[in-house]
């Protein structure tokens, strides 16, 4: 602990990131450039999220880190350990106990409260990037509120597939002004972007921070005749039986057998702890007995 | 250099900055919320809350403009010693400005950002005689339904909102308490609501 400044980053770097976060909160959905630092992990492993978390953490925080909803994958475990070591903060797997949650590609199922902060790891923050590769142009498009291309993209989905096939990183319009990429969360999570919690998005390689204050108006783009739909796999969780949570499909044998389980591991465990059982949870029940 | 210049900083900069920022962020994310901070003391008449904000946010990269109400040799030296921020002569050069409302105006001279970079705008720290959650009615991002705050001049903040997404962002400070008003907030007076 004494080997590092609190939360790893030096104070001047944290001030720079903190100023960017405040401007990001003042202009919801706008991507604020910041001087992203090299972190002791490769780009693509959440360097942006880690820098935003480091700038926000206080010693009293209880940190939760999830990767695609799971607390126990490599990325989540290593980032949790990183802050245990460099900030000395407590950690938890429980959504309800956490004060700061760093996430890769999911929003927890359990509604967040006003005492929580959600920090997203963002790979490509620019919603127009795959439509227009030049930063000079996308910046101008945001300035002029020129978002026709995004609708063309969604329309092409309909022309080709009969429906909007974009299922993750689904573009949203924030407070009627900026089109924002909510990081590659499944579109199932889009309605949860209107939250009680502060949401901060950090893209380390792309050097951008954007944010959503609580109760911010976030509208998923759609058409009148093809309204937005927060879709998920049409199953119940095979472990906890939940019919409303976002599911992962898991191949379980060589014969095409498969099961659907909650992507949010804490949500699933909490439900099983409360006695809920899914289709394939019989063995789990015996273990518990 | 006299002793007063060198005192009044954080005793544990890393931790106290983190606490101070958390309060500033919560204020900016929830316009109208009033939060208490502690740990810094700048030469009079700077409030504790304004001193904390300076220590948390200012450094050699952020030009500071001091309004006549606050400009003094002692404060300039305190800022130089604790933050290293350059004190500039014109409103238009400032990233941060500090003072009472009457000496901070007119607002038109501050940087409001550019259409491509609306973040390149000034943040004003407005020292207030009192801070109460009543008066002007605030709505917009960060506010569930409506919040109240005793703003010095509702019309000026409404004009600032008219520039959105450009515009200025404000911290309002009084004693050890602070609130914030980002450019995204809609400001109305109670008479207009009823």
Structure, described:
- The complex is a heterodimer of chains A (289) and B (194).
- With 289 residues, chain A is α/β, with parallel strands linked by helices.
- In chain A, 27% of the residues lie in helices and 17% in strands.
- Chain A contains seven helices and twelve strands.
- Chain A has helices spanning 11-26, 47-56, 74-86, 135-143, 148-161, 265-273, 282-288; strands spanning 32-33, 62-67, 90-91, 100-104, 117-121, 172-174, 178-180, 198-203, 208-212, 218-220, 247-251, 258-262.
- In chain A, the strands form three sheets. In chain A, strands 1-9-8-5-4-2-3 form a seven-stranded mixed β-sheet. In chain A, strands 7-6-10 form a three-stranded antiparallel β-sheet, with no helix packed on it.
- In chain A, β8 (198-203) and β9 (208-212) form a beta hairpin.
- The radius of gyration of chain A is 20 Å and the shape is globular.
- Mean pLDDT of chain A is 94; it is low at 284-289.
- By secondary structure, chain B is an alpha/beta fold.
- In chain B, the strands form two sheets. A six-stranded mixed β-sheet of chain B has the order 1-8-7-4-3-2.
- In chain B, α4 links the parallel β2 and β3 (96-100).
- In chain B, α2 packs across α3 (48-57).
- Chain B is globular, with a radius of gyration of 16 Å.
- The mean pLDDT of chain B is 95.
- Classes of the chains: A alpha/beta (289), B alpha/beta (194).
- The interface between A and B is large, with 44 and 39 residues.
């Amino acid at each position: 602990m004494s080997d590092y400044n609190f939360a790893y980053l030096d104070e001047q770097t944290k001030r720079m990131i903190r100023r960017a976060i405040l401007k990001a909160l003042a202009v919801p959905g706008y991507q604020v450039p910041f001087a992203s630092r090299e972190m002791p992990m490769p780009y693509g492993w959440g360097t942006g999220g880690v820098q935003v978390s480091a700038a926000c953490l206080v010693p009293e925080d209880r940190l939760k880190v999830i990767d695609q909803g799971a607390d126990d994958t490599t990325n989540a475990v290593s980032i949790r350990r990183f802050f245990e070591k460099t900030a000395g903060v407590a950690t938890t797997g429980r959504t309800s106990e956490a004060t700061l949650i760093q996430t890769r590609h999911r929003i927890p199922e359990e509604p967040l409260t006003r005492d929580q902060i959600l920090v997203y790891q963002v790979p490509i923050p620019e919603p127009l990037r795959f439509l227009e590769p030049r930063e000079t142009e996308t910046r101008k498009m945001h300035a002029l509120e020129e978002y026709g291309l995004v609708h063309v993209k969604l329309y092409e989905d309909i022309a080709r597939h009969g429906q909007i096939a974009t299922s993750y990183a689904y573009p949203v319009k924030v407070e009627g002004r900026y089109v924002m990429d909510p990081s590659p969360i499944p579109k199932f999570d889009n309605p949860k972007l209107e939250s009680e919690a502060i949401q901060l998005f950090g893209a380390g390689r792309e050097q951008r921070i954007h944010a959503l204050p609580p109760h911010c108006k976030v509208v998923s783009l759609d058409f009148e005749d093809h309204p937005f739909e927060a879709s998920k796999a049409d199953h119940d969780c095979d472990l906890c039986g939940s019919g409303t949570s976002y599911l992962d499909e898991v191949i379980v044998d060589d014969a095409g057998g498969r099961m659907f389980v909650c992507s949010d591991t804490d949500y699933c465990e909490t439900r099983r702890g409360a006695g809920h059982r899914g289709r394939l949870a019989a063995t789990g029940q015996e273990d518990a007995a | 250099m006299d002793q007063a210049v060198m005192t009044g900083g954080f005793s544990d900069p890393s931790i106290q900055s983190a606490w101070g920022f958390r309060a500033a962020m919560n204020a900016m994310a929830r316009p109208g919320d009033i939060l208490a901070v502690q740990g810094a003391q700048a030469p009079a008449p700077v409030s504790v809350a304004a001193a904390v904000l300076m220590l948390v946010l200012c450094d050699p990269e952020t030009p500071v403009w001091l309004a006549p109400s606050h400009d003094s040799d002692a404060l300039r030296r305190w800022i130089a010693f604790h933050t290293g921020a350059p004190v500039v002569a014109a409103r238009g050069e400032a990233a941060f400005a500090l003072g009472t409302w009457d000496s901070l105006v007119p607002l038109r001279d501050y940087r409001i950002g550019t259409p491509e970079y609306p973040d390149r705008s000034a943040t004003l720290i407005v020292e207030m005689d009192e801070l109460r959650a009543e008066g002007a009615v605030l709505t917009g991002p960060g506010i569930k339904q409506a919040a109240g705050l005793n703003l010095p001049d509702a019309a000026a903040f409404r004009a600032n909102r008219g520039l959105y997404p450009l515009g200025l962002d404000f911290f309002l400070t009084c004693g050890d308490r602070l609130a914030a008003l980002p450019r995204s907030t809609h400001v109305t007076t109670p008479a207009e609501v009823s």
